[in-house]
Amino acid sequence: MDYWLHTYEKDLRLVFQDCSRIISGFPEPLDMAGHSYLDHFNVFCTGSRNNYICYLLPFWMQEGCSLTIENTRQMSVGNVFLMLYFFIQDDLMDSLGPNSSDKLPLANLLYIEFLNIYRALFPYPSTFWTYFNRYIAEWADSVTNERTSDYFLNDPMKIARKASPLKLSSTAALLLSGQSSLVTPAETMLDHVLLTLQMLDDYEDWEEDLSIGNANNCLLSLVRSRLAITHEELTAEKVKDFIYTADGLAEYAARAQDNHNRLPDCRLMAPRLTAFHSGMIRNLQQIAAEITREKLLLQHGGLYYWLSKNMTQDPKQ
């Protein structure tokens, strides 16, 4: 059982209930649109996208920062509103469709709710807002320039900084607990975790990204580099050959493991964040190991492969 998640199930229910209650106060029809976006990310809704780190990071920081449960939940609620705000920003940047203008008012309402929560925790002129400005600037820089630079090869941390606003809750927790000296180590730790999270997402999404011409995919970047080809020359067959024949996913997983090896250097005691990262690494390594195992079975021949798949019992029993 993932203790970094299930320990907080009751608290998360309260967080999403609070978010739902606040969104219900939005003017029509923005309340319905807001609930639709919220359900899309609500961990308790079937088929939702599980953005665990967004709403769980305040809880993972709680013990080490001696935060009250009230402040922790409020920070999580604020994170959800900020996540939804940036999700709409990404949506608008990716597709300027006929309904784009309808999303802007909702985005602003969500942003205001985030500000209401964090302004109560950090009245002006708290240094929190200096960090806020920097994280937003990092996000803007990363999402603007990713189309002209291969971040995975040239500057991997810029991939993580597309999610820099997420660091607001860890920085908030450290400032509230008088541990401002740990803000920079926490930022570095989160950069490594967020990079691995993007790597895992990119493995799952590489076929879709390739089909729509999205070159900003970590796995596709690695394939292009190893094959010394351009994105235009990349095909699904070449990617599959890299993954299934050349053991490329093992190299990809090793890159993620390198991120994990750097976490102890960050000096931040956040065992649940570390456990979350370990789980992601384990997922990638297990997928890579299974691919290698399947390949070895096939190399032994068709009969051997069939027997390994179908002989589920020991013949001596």
Task: Note down, in words, how this protein is organized.
Helix content is 72%, strand content 0%. By secondary structure, the chain is an all-alpha fold. It has two domains: 1-121; 133-303, no CATH class. The protein is built from 16 helices and no strands. 37% of the residues are buried. The radius of gyration is 22 Å and the shape is globular. The longest helix has 29 residues, at 183-211. α4 packs antiparallel against α5 (69-94), α5 (69-94) runs antiparallel to α6 and α14 (248-261) packs antiparallel against α15 (271-299). The chain has helices at 3-6, 9-23, 30-41, 52-65, 69-94, 100-121, 128-145, 151-154, 157-160, 167-176, 183-211, 218-227, 236-244, 248-261, 271-299, 302-310.
**Helix segment tally:** 16
Low-confidence stretches: 312-317
Helix/strand structural class: mainly alpha
Q: Tell me about the biggest sheet?
A: none
Total DSSP E strands: 0
Helix content: over 70%
SSE series: HHHHHHHHHHHHHHHH
Shape: globular
Beta-strand percentage?
Answer: under 5%
Mean pLDDT, to the nearest integer, reads 90
Gyration radius, rounded: 22 Å
- How many domain regions? 2
Distance between the termini: 32 Å
Brief summary:
This protein has 317 residues and is mainly α.
What does the secondary structure layout of this molecule look like, with pairings?
Elements: H1 3-6, H2 9-23, H3 30-41, H4 52-65, H5 69-94, H6 100-121, H7 128-145, H8 151-154, H9 157-160, H10 167-176, H11 183-211, H12 218-227, H13 236-244, H14 248-261, H15 271-299, H16 302-310
